[in-house]
Specification:
The complex is a heterodimer of chains A (about 425) and B (about 290). By secondary structure, chain A is mainly beta. Chain A contains three helices and 30 strands. In chain A, strands 3-2-4-5-6 form a five-stranded mixed sheet, with helices on one face. In chain A, strands 9-8-7-30 form a four-stranded antiparallel sheet, with no helix packed on it. A four-stranded antiparallel sheet of chain A has the order 10-11-12-13, with no helix packed on it. In chain A, strand 23 and strand 24 form a beta hairpin. In chain A, helix 1 crosses helix 3. Chain A starts with 19 loop residues before the first strand and ends with a strand. By secondary structure, chain B is mainly α. In chain B, about 60% of the residues lie in helices and about 5% in strands. In chain B, helix 1 runs parallel beside helix 7 and helix 4 crosses helix 5. Classes of the chains: A mainly beta (about 425), B mainly alpha (about 290). Strand 1 of chain A pairs parallel with strand 3 of chain B.
């Protein structure tokens, strides 16, 4: 684990009675955790442990200690740990759990200990169908993550994306696919006729909307013919038409309360942002003018919308109220800004930027401050947030023209690929397993 | 003292030769059987501070044996060792910046040299001489115990004197204002902070963590060890309700416990028995 030292230390003396020592410097280092699971049947021990280990270590915030280093056996969740023995192997935390299988159900009782402070800091009780053992493991990871970092875990979430099969003679097959956040349980959801883009979860994670258009050969060229926004119900696995609107619609997104859909509609060279009430299909125009306004996204409280527009000459980010009023410019740097996405935590907006001949994934605060780039590449675009606002997925195309999905932490660290069988673009994070 | 004239026959010569060989071998055996110093005391004295030297001297017979061995070595090479001893005495004096030159220190080498001069240098050529030597060594041991006690006393006196000087200095510093407010200097606080920061996993990337300032009160034992049960996060209410603050405070507490035991400037141990850490997340993240 690389240790990075931040700012310069600055300490000063105290006055008379009370001595105060300022610590203004730190390092980036992983929290070490020892994981122990007792399963009398031995069937699920390794599977659960591996899943939890991969979940936690995948965040780069945690490092799991090898079981071979353990100096104390913990045969039961109620065994009191000898903290000095765990401190000796450099464990910051210890997780010990018992597993029981009864009537086709898996029961897990766990305890989390702070080794250095020598106290128990968490108690967990999880159960579910035995076949859902992996989901149970993800819930264990969530619990440990939440107790230690103070933020909700996201290990039981799903990722939607567009699977792209590149065939001979330039033919391509676009299909919407879904997988667990760790790349497991992959399934393809749509047939593959036409082009599908921008799958977007609804706030409940029960369905998603996407844009679909058909292509036609006209005079030897492939041209898109008007497409529509569809909704796919994850439970019934049925696709229904969400809206048919005149003109090309792009990038539909749900409002946080699930009642509205916002999208951009292009017409005669310009593009404006529209809002549609799902219950009655009533459409309201939010922006107007001879501009290209596109890629709208709601804030998590539903009060503001961020979008990109070229109304000031270059493609920049703007925010406005949910009714279209009070349009304010957000970004001011050189370059072209696109695909803004508001963090579910509300404290950052992620975007794609093109500048200096390269693409970037960056974040900026809703007040316009703190702009910084997290990832760059030959072609990176289309960020999407983890439900706890700490990790971003995006599309990445390397020079060999392979499309992949990459992940990066909000601190800019832990950039890595999420492996898929075929080329993948347009990731969307949300939904529960 | 050649007595070859008295040896008339070959037989006699051979007998005397055998006797001398036996004497030499027995001396060698006796010498090798005597306990050898593991750590020459001169080296220990050089490296150790006076406090540690006191601890060393408190450990009875081992120490005295070491003193014996080295002084025995000195007797075989009186000139070299007395010189090096002088150097060492001088080094001891130099090491203490607070201490004003004490005339007593300079006298030390001469005092210790006189017993060396008294020890008789005897010829090892006869069996009798060898036996006498062994008994003389026993006498040496008794004398060396005396010397060890004397050196202990001298070191104690030196310590007391040093304490007096320190107190006088502290009084002067307090009266005169000293550095800053006179209690803890910036360097001293920084030396404590420098022990903590390599262990502090700064909570980056969590919402609004940049505005956190975590104040933690700690209590230390004499040896600088942090007492885990007495670590107190001052904003208890926030710790109980704000889970993100709790995570940040936990990271600070972990850093303190990992860094324990802390090295505290010896003269300020009392000031640091109970004090407060202030972890500034914003500064640590470069804000």
């Amino acid at each position: 684990m690389t240790k990075i030292i931040f700012a310069l230390c600055f300490t000063f003396a105290s006055s008379n009675a009370e001595v105060v020592v300022e610590v203004n410097k730190g390092v980036m280092k992983a929290i070490t955790i020892a994981l122990n699971i007792n399963d009398p049947t031995r069937l699920y021990e390794r599977k659960l442990l591996e899943t939890v280990e991969n979940d936690l270590q995948g965040t780069f915030l945690f490092r799991s200690i090898n079981k071979k280093a353990f100096m104390q056996n913990l045969p039961s969740v109620s065994t009191t740990p000898k903290f000095s023995l765990w401190r000796m192997i450099n464990a910051n935390y210890l997780f010990n759990a018992d597993v029981k299988i009864q009537n086709g159900r898996l029961y897990v009782e766990g305890a989390l200990f702070d080794v250095l402070s020598e106290m128990k800091v968490g108690k967990f009780s999880i159960n579910g169908d035995v076949r859902d053992w992996k989901k149970i493991a993800h819930v264990i990871s969530n619990s440990i993550y939440a107790r230690i970092t103070g933020e909700a875990g996201y290990f039981d979430t799903k990722i939607l994306y567009v699977q792209l099969k590149k065939l001979s003679r330039g033919r391509r097959v676009y299909q919407i696919a879904m997988m667990d956040q760790d790349g497991d349980n992959h399934e393809v959801l749509t047939r593959g006729d036409g082009v599908v883009l921008t799958p977007r979860f609804d706030p409940n994670g029960q369905e998603f909307s996407f844009f679909h258009y058909k292509e036609k050969r006209v005079n030897g060229r492939i041209v898109p013919i008007s497409g529509s926004v569809y909704r796919y119900n994850l439970r019934t696995k049925k696709t229904t038409l969400l809206a048919r609107v005149d003109g090309m619609t792009y990038a539909p997104r749900y409002s946080p309360d699930g009642k509205f859909l916002i999208f951009s509609l292009s017409h005669k060279g310009s593009s404006s942002i529209y809002k549609m009430e799902l219950s009655n299909q009533k459409v309201t125009r939010l922006t107007s003018g001879p501009y290209i306004d596109t890629s709208p996204c709601f804030s998590p409280d539903g009060k503001r919308i961020v979008f990109n527009s070229d109304r000031n000459g270059t493609q920049q980010l703007y925010t406005m109220n949910s009714d279209g009023t009070d349009i304010k410019r957000l970004s001011f740097q050189n370059g072209r800004y696109a695909t803004p996405v508001w963090s579910p935590r509300g404290d950052w907006i992620a975007f794609t930027k093109f500048g200096y001949g390269k693409f970037f994934i960056g974040i900026i605060r809703p007040d316009g401050s703190g702009e910084r780039m997290l990832a760059s590449g030959h072609l990176v675009e289309g960020p999407t947030w983890s439900p706890n606002g700490r990790v971003i997925l995006y599309s990445h195309q390397d020079r060999s023209k392979k499309d992949k999905i990459y992940s990066v932490d909000i601190t800019g660290y832990n950039e890595h690929e999420i492996k898929t069988s075929f080329d993948a673009i347009d990731p969307e994070w949300g939904g529960k397993i | 003292m050649l007595r070859e004239n008295d040896f008339s026959s070959l037989k006699q010569q051979m007998i005397w030769s055998a006797v001398l060989h036996i004497a030499l071998f027995s001396y060698g055996i006796i010498y090798s059987l005597l306990p050898k110093p593991k750590h020459p005391i001169l080296v220990a004295v050089e490296i150790a501070g006076e406090g540690e030297l006191r601890k060393i001297l408190d450990a009875n017979s081992d120490q005295q044996k070491r003193i014996e061995q080295i002084l025995r070595q000195q007797s075989e090479k009186p000139k070299e060792i007395s010189e090096s001893k002088q150097e060492i005495e001088e080094k001891k004096v130099e090491k203490d910046p607070n201490e004003t030159p004490v005339p007593r220190a300079k006298k030390k080498p001469t005092k210790k040299q006189t017993p060396k001069k008294k020890t008789p240098k005897k010829s090892q050529k006869t069996m009798k001489d060898a036996i006498k030597k062994v008994s003389a060594q026993k006498k040496w041991r008794a004398k060396l115990n005396e010397i060890a006690k004397k050196s202990e006393n001298e070191i104690k006196k030196k310590e007391e004197l040093q304490k007096k000087i320190e107190e006088a200095q502290n009084a002067a510093t307090a009266a005169g204002g000293g550095m800053g407010s006179g209690s803890v200097s910036a360097e001293e606080a920084e030396s404590i902070s420098a022990q903590i920061y390599p262990h502090w996993a700064v909570p980056s990337g969590i919402k609004d963590a940049e505005n956190f300032v975590i104040e933690i009160r700690v209590k230390l034992k004499e040896n600088g060890e942090v007492i885990p049960a007495d670590i107190e996060i001052l904003d208890k209410n926030r710790y109980a309700t704000d889970y993100i603050f709790r995570a940040a405070a936990d990271s600070a507490r972990r850093a303190i416990l990992e860094a324990s035991p802390l090295s505290i400037p010896r003269d300020k141990i009392d000031m640091f028995r109970e004090f407060t850490f202030r972890f500034n997340v914003k500064e640590a993240l470069g804000g």
